[in-house]
Amino acid sequence: MGVTVLPAADRVAVAWRNGGGVTREIAAFPAGVDDFRWRLSIADVAADGPFSAFVGYRRVITVLTGAGMRLTVGDAVHDIGPLQPFEFDGGAQTTCTLPGGPITDLNLMVRAGARGAVRIIETSDPLTVTGPAAIVIVRGAATLAGRSVGVPDAALVDRATDTALSPLGTATVALIDLP
């Protein structure tokens, strides 16, 4: 039980299911399988196009860098601004346009019916995070589990574990509640 720091430098770029871009997986459970319970990743979105379908999953996407995106999910159009978590059905036909150019996004996928949420917090005060959770540094830097972390380092906090995140100045973090 504890906290596992996941440095951004350790992530490997992997092609999307539809071949339209790349993602860097932060963590998944169970790891290394297509039928995961949850997965957390950061994707580079450089051009307009369709999203890969993940039938049976709920997705929460958050623009980390860039001006935002326009998602068409089924027949509904949604303008997603920076640092605004947006939840949708992973199996729905989804296309993306980038009115302001390329972006990077944080993508949480959980099996339909499972809990899982993303909250964006900007703070200069220490935070206590209780697992099961993940943390992604979005802006600034902090100390976590005795280590310095910066953009876009991450950490997993095990179930029934509390950890302190101490911003160095002001930091913006994504706090992810995991199933």
From TrEMBL:
SUPFAM superfamilies to which the protein is assigned, alphabetical: RmlC-like cupins
Domain of life: Bacteria
InterPro entries cross-referenced by the UniProt entry: RmlC-like_jellyroll, RmlC_Cupin_sf, Uncharacterised_HutD/Ves
Pfam families hit by this protein: HutD
The name this protein goes by in its record: HutD protein
Organism from which the protein derives: Catellatospora citrea
